[in-house]
Structure formats: C-alpha cells, structure tokens
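B., you asked whether I could sanity-check this one before it goes into the benchmark set. Here's the sequence:
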Amino acid sequence: MRKILTYLKSYKKECVLAPLFKLLEATFELFVPLVVASIVDTGIAGRDTGYILRMCGIMILLGIIGLACSVTAQYFAARAAVGFSTKLRYELFAHIQGLSFTELDQAGTSTMITRMTNDVNQVQSGVNLVLRLFMRSPFIVFGAMVMALTIDVKAAMVFVVTIPLLSVVVFGVMLISIPLYRRVQNALDQVLGKTRENLTGARVIRAFHREDEETEEFEQRNAALNGLQRFVGKLSGLMNPLTFIIINMAIVVLIYVGGVQVDTGVITQGEVVALVNYMSQIL
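And here's what the prediction gave me:
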C-alpha cells in the first residue's frame, strides 16, 4: 500500500483540497436541518411569511455553496485519481517489460492484461472514492450525532444506538465481500486467458476440430465467473436494504421519543423535524 501511495506524491495539493471541500459541503449540509427547524417553530407557528421566505433563501444559498464545494472536490479528486492511475500504469508496464520470459510465463499474459486494465481502473475508482468520501462520511455521521446532542440528549440516544448497528452491517458485508472479490478476479483471469488462447490458436483449433470443446470450456469458465459475480453482487446488495431498515426503524423510534419530549415541553416540533433530518443524513 505504501508503494502505491508514492504515486500520489505529485498530487499532494489535490489530496488535501478534495477532502477539505467535501468537509465544507458536509458542514453546510449539517446546518440545513437547523434552518428547517427555525422555519417550523418561528415562521409557520407565527405565520410569518417574510421569515419563511428569508429562511428559504438561506437554505437555497447553503445548497448552492454546498454544490460548489462538491463540484470542486470532485474536480480535485478526479485529477488526483487519473494522474495516479496514469503513473501507476506506466510503472506497471515498465515493470512487466523488465520481467524474464520465465516470470512472464508463470504470471500469464491474461493476468498481465487484467492488471494493466481492469485492476488499475479499480484502483483509480478507489482513490477517487477515498478522496471524496473517506472523511466526509464519518464527519456527517458523527456530526449529525453531535448536532442531535445539542438539540436533545434523550432523543440523541437513538443515534448512539443506530450508528454502531450501521457500522456492524457495513463492515460485516465488506469483510465477507473482499475475499469473494478476489475469487472473482481469479475467475476473470481464467476467462481472459481462455479467450487469448482461442484467439492466438484459432487455426490450430480449427485444424484439430476442437471448436466445440473450446466453446464448452469457455462457457464453463464464463458461467463460473457469472455465478461468482452474481453471488457477490447479491451479497453487496444487502447493504442498502439493511441500512434502510435500520434507519427507518430509528426514525420511527425517534419520532416517538420526540413526540413524548414535545408533549413535556422539552423540545419543539421543529427540533423533531431537525432530528429526523439528521437521522436521514447518516445514509
């Protein structure tokens, strides 16, 4: 990992600015529920149309600033990721050119092609996602919990329970999926290897009338790859439904607790709306 990260040295500025602008976007996003709460408690309760319009203008302004920060962060993240993958691909090609014939035969041409194309593209996407979401996601999650604590401690206990449950689901699915993705990569290498063999040895295959056998073997390898990809996709697809279930159940509990707190006069209706918005932002 350290060797790979050395290719980001030329993009230190982008690696700092991309998360920074994402944090700015998240900060402005955390202020929106407070504006909504003030609209409900002050504007709607007092039937003050002017106040409502002013607060709506502030919300629009926050949205525009957040959009500008998000686009800027995406620009710097994409620039760093593309430059990183370019350098990595160049160094990988130079390394492959320096391998002996024995090492090339052991690794296999299909594996080399996969490393140069698909693997580098995956790493590029990973760098892009890390620069954009690595700091933003924890900041939003814990920021929403802190803002909820400033509104009402009792209602914020729902966040304290929900966030660990979400962490268990997300990291559990990731821990199970990562080894399976390695198997998918190996299956992809086998499919590419068989494809290359058929392309380079097409005349030999035809001369010995092995078209049917080669087609059947390719279909078997392709079916194995398809089965692995479908299984991993279904497993990864469980993350969204499970997180939505946890969040929606937490919102139900939050509304119930918030309703009790409103009846006792501890918090206002607008603050309950803000708490629900903070819970939704965790997703």
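One thing to flag: The two ends are 29 Å apart (CA to CA). Otherwise nothing jumped out at me.
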